[in-house]
C-alpha cells in the first residue's frame, strides 16, 4: 500500500516540476515494456547512456526504479484526470481500498487469487520464483482451472508478454491458436460470463494489450461470450419476470442503473427476449400501485441517453406494450383504469421518442 502512494507522490513531484505532463502517464507502461523487450533494463540503461538518448518517461522510471512506477495500480485515465483536472474517481479509490489485500501479486492465498496474479510483476521475480510460478500458471491452463473471462485474458496476456521478452518459448501464432482452443474447451463451464473490458480488471492492465495476436484473442473471446449470452438470455428473461411482484427490489437492481443489485441487464436488451404476452399477463395481474412501480422502473431504465444505443432492440417490446395500453384505454373508456393507462402510455411514448 505504501509503495502505491509513493508512486503517486513521485508522479506529482515530476509533473509539478514540469518534467512530464499528466498525459505522459499513459506512456509509462508501454515505454517500460518496450525498453524491457529490447533488453534495456535499468542496468543496461546505465551502461549505454552515452549511446542512447533516454525519453523523459524512461528517465523517470530509472530515477524511481525502487518504486516500480510502471505498476501504478490505478487506471491510467483516472491518474491523468487527477493530476490534470483534480478529479478523483471515488468509486475506483474505494474499490482499491476494499481490495487492497489482493494488490500484492506475489502474496496471498492461491485459492482466492488466480495464478496469473502471482506472475504479473514477472520482472521483479528471481529465476527460481519465475520458474515455479509460470509452471503453476501453465498447469492451471492445462487442467482448465481458469474459467473466468478476465482471468483467461490475463493469463494469455502474460504469456504473450513473456514471449515478447523471450523468456517463454512459443510463437505468437501458436499461442493465439492455443488461446482459441482453450476458450472453446472451457466455454461450457465458464463463470462470470460477460464481456470484460480490454483494459483488464481494476489495478491490473493487460501487459500484452498492444500485441496484435492478443487483441485478436480478446475479440475471439468477446464474440464467443456474446454468442453464449444470447443463448442464455431467453431463460434469464423468464427468471427476471418471475421477480414481479414479490421482489421489485431485485428486479430494479438488475434493470436500472439506479438499482443496488448486480445491474446485469442495465446495458443488455433483456426485454427483447421477454415474451410480450407473458409480460402483459403479469402487468395486468398487478394492482394500480404496483403497475405504477413497473412504469417508474422503465422510466429509470430509459432515462440515460448514453445507454440507449445498447438497448435499441427493446424498441419493438415497447411498441407492443404501447399497443396494448392503447387497446386497454379504448376498452375501459371513461374509467379510472383508462385514465391510468393513458398516463402509462404517455410515459412509454416518451421512451420511444428517445430511441429515434
Average predicted local confidence, pLDDT: 80
Low-confidence stretches: 37-52, 101-111, 195-200
Number of structural domains:
3
- The H/E string reads HHHHHHHHHHHHHHHH
Helix/strand/pairing category: mainly alpha
- The end-to-end distance, rounded to whole angstroms, is 49 Å
Largest sheet: none
Query: Shape from CA axes?
Result: elongated
Number of helices: 16
- For the CA atoms, what is the radius of gyration? 26 Å
Residue share in β-strands: under 5%
How many distinct beta strands?
0
Percent helix, as a range, is 55-70%
Oligomer: single chain
Summarize the structure.
The protein has 356 residues and is mostly helical.
Layout of helices and strands, plus pairs?
Layout: H1 2-16, H2 28-37, H3 42-47, H4 56-63, H5 76-85, H6 90-98, H7 127-142, H8 149-164, H9 172-186, H10 212-241, H11 248-255, H12 276-284, H13 288-301, H14 305-308, H15 315-331, H16 336-354
Helix pairs in contact: 8-9, 8-10, 9-10, 13-16, 15-16
